[in-house]
Each structure stands twice: as C-alpha cells, then as structure tokens.
Write a structure and sequence with these properties.
By secondary structure, this protein is of the alpha/beta class. It is 42% helix and 21% strand. The site of beta-D-glucopyranose (BGC) has 10 residues, from loops.
Length: 421
C-alpha cells in the first residue's frame, strides 16, 4: 500500500470548461460586476477536453494521487435528470487515473451548483440535504467501486461566508443566521453521505476539506484585539471540528451572531482535509455592524496573502487533537515568480516531513495542478504547477517548480510516517 499520497488538486468548475452553472449564470447576469468583481470563465482550462493529457502530466511529475471534483451542474443540469454522457466521461477519467496508478480523491461538492438549485432547495433550507444527497448517491453508486477516498465537502464555511455572509458568491445572501443554517445543512448532508458510503463500501475513507487560517492580533497591546482574534479562530478554525465531537453547532460573537443548534454528527469522519494558505491579522473596529478588520502584514503572493509555513505546523497540531487522520488537501501559492513557488513548496514540505513523524498525516496535495479560474478573480492568479497558455489554445507548459516538487517528493518519500494507513 502507498505510504504517503503526494498529489495535486483541482476542482471541476475551476478547470473543466464547457458547462453552465450558478457561477456562469452570475457572470452572464452581471452580478459579480455589481459587487466589484469581473471573473471571466471562458471555459476554465479546457480540461473537459484535455483531461487525458493533464493526467499524463500528473504521471510525468511522478504524483501518485490526484484530488478533483465532479461538476454537479454537468450531471444534473435539470433537476432529477442525470446526464449519462457526463457520467460516462467521469468514469473514463477515473479509470484512466487508476490505469496510471494514480489514486483518485473525489470531492463531491466544491462551491458550484446547478442553476435550479438556489431557487428550488437553497442550502439554508433543510430540503437541500436531500437534493444534494440524492445527486451525490448517484455518483457514489457509479464510482464507489473505484474510489477509496471521498471528500464530501470542500470548505463549507468558506463557501457559506462568501455566499450567505458577504453575498459575493451565488446565491448572494447577506444574513449570518441563514449562513449558519446553510453550514448546518451541509454538515447534515455530510453525515447522510458518510453513512451511505460506509454501508456500501466499508473500506472507503470519508473526509471533508476544511480551510484553516492563522489569526494573530493586529495590535498586541490591545486586549480587545486579542479577544477578538481568539473568537475568530474559534469560529473559523474550530467550530466545525468541535461540532463533530460535541454534536452542536455553536457560535457566539457579541453584536454579530448567536447560534446554537444540535446536530448529530457523532464524529462521523475518517480524515480531515487541511486547506492551508496564509496568516491574517485581526483588529477591532468601532463599527457595530462590521467590527472586524482582517489584513495581512506582509502580503507576498499575487493574492495578497502572507506566507507563513509555520502556521501549517500549528494547524496540523490542532487537527491532530481530533484523533483523526490528516491529509493536506490544499496548499499553494498564486505567483508568476516560479522561484517563490519553489521556496513556498520547500518550506511547507519541510513542515509536512516533520509532522509525519509525530501525527497521522497521510498526504499532501499542492493547489493547484493547473493555473485555473479563481472564483472571484478569473484567470490572472496563477496557482498552477502547470502553466496554461490562454492565448494559445490552452496549451500546457510544465513550470520548473513542478519538477522541483517532484524532486522533493522523491527525497521525502523515504520518510516513515507515524502509522501505516
Ligand atoms: C478553494 C479553491 C481556491 C483556493 C485559492 C480554496 O479556498 O478550495 O477553490 O481556488 O482556495 O483561493
């Protein structure tokens, strides 16, 4: 059995192209522009057409695993009608990965939805749970014989903050109570799928990819900044982890949010996926409606994020306290400076190498395999190991940092992890 998963990650909508979903609808209706954004999808990276070539590149880079997602809108574009053509292509994609000896890690929900979803069964309503589970069960029935690692949701809290808190993603609500209801329903859907997968495929491992950020107080000498930072950490990094062991989704932040709702999660998760990128500072503003100011002190990447590899160590330690296995499901940098990308990878892999000796860390996935469509921004932020030449038929060019990643993988493959998978 493979001892450690070295991979790269993508999400369906960010790379595939040739699909209409809630994001393309918002783009065409001009909703992003109303909020000051102008992402242009233009068929992502054309991966829906060039997937075979992309998987050959994974192999060329010696990666033994690949994290990807399935585009719900492509399968169930009309409610309760499933596209056989799309299912067949995904099936061929999975078969091809396996034929290359690349372990597929399949994410069931990564931010995007069919256009009917938000008006018919939005996430803040309990009907969403069935709508999503019915769809996801079709995927599980179809691919469960070949998928060992399932990620039910990618960053439910991040999605809910963008879609229900800030109103920047479809469906564009700005209501914190509805946001928490949406998170709760996503967690309920996770449980429904956990049970379904375990009942049908006992060997499968089921996790969730959660985003973690290191928060530091903006002004060390101000006690209120410290208190605020602690609460933000509890909300963003710990609330969902705690809900799995306490069977309650709880959060209270004076003037903003008071939420306490029971939910039967019963620790139903086999591994936690860590998506980790950066550190932020938190400062209290004297504005009752919007009292939090979050900012990087030293923005270094094209996303304006502060690189902080030590933060990964802290997050691994935090997640390890759940006792579950850990997979770094996303870690990467948007930059045109490939030397900076090498530096980023090197620093984070050093942390992973050490953490493997102490904790149940089972894999690392660089985000992303390809330069791709970034949700609110479009194509200008280049996270990829592989460059996409958008001017020339989406041609693929491997970046030197990708070969450097391969070199480090070869070096670190010899490290023994704490326990065997
Ligand atoms: C998301 C990705 C996104 C990446 C960089 C993560 O939060 O899962 O879809 O592209 O961050 O912003």
């Amino acid at each position: 059995m493979t001892e450690f998963y070295w991979g790269a990650a993508t999400s369906a909508f960010q790379v595939e192209g040739h699909v209409s979903n809630d994001f393309t609808e918002w783009e065409s209706l001009g909703y992003f522009r109303k909020n000051g954004f102008n992402p242009q999808y233009n068929n992502g990276c054309n991966h829906w057409v060039r997937w075979q070539e992309d998987f050959d590149l994974l192999k060329e880079l010696n990666l033994n695993s690949y994290r990807f997602s399935i585009e719900w809108a492509r399968i169930e574009n009309i409610k309760n009608t499933y596209s056989e053509t799309a299912l067949t292509q995904y099936s061929e994609m999975i078969d091809y990965l396996i034929s290359l000896n690349i372990e597929p890690f399949l994410t069931l929900h990564h931010f995007s939805h069919p256009q009917w979803f938000h008006s018919a069964t939005p996430w803040h309503k309990v009907e969403a749970v069935d709508a999503f589970c019915n769809y996801a069960k079709t995927i599980i029935d179809r691919f469960g014989d070949r998928i060992k690692y399932w990620i039910t949701f990618n960053e439910p809290l991040v999605w809910a903050l963008a879609a229900y808190g800030a109103g920047k993603f479809p469906p564009g609500y700005k209501n914190l109570k509805l946001m928490m209801d949406a998170v709760k329903n996503m967690l309920a859907a996770h449980v429904c799928l956990y049970d379904y997968i375990k009942n049908n495929y006992q060997q499968a491992k089921i996790g969730m990819a959660k985003h973690f950020i290191i928060f530091k107080e903006g002004r060390e000498w101000i006690l209120l900044d410290k208190t605020l930072t602690k609460r933000i950490h509890e909300f963003f990094n710990q609330m969902i982890l705690n809900a799995f062991s306490q069977n309650r989704l709880i959060f209270y932040l004076p003037t903003l949010l008071k939420y306490d709702s029971p939910i039967n999660l019963n620790n139903k998760i086999d591994f936690w996926g860590i998506n980790y990128y950066y550190k932020l500072y938190a400062q209290l503003k004297f504005n009752l409606k919007n009292p939090i100011y979050l900012f990087p002190k030293e923005p270094e990447t094209d996303m304006g994020w502060e690189i902080y590899p030590k933060g990964l160590k802290k997050i691994i330690k935090l997640v390890a306290s759940t006792g579950k296995e850990i997979i770094i499901t996303e870690n990467g940098i948007a930059t045109n400076d490939d030397e900076l990308r090498k530096h980023f990878i090197k620093k984070h892999l050093k942390i992973v190498k050490k953490a493997r000796k102490k904790y149940k860390v089972r894999g690392y996935f660089y985000w992303s395999l390809l330069d791709n469509y970034e949700w609110l921004i479009g194509k200008s932020k280049r996270f990829g190991l592989i460059k996409i030449d958008y001017e020339n038929s989406f041609n693929r060019i491997i970046k030197p940092s990708a070969f450097y990643y391969t070199k480090l993988i070869n070096k670190y493959s010899k490290v023994k992890s704490e326990k065997k998978i």
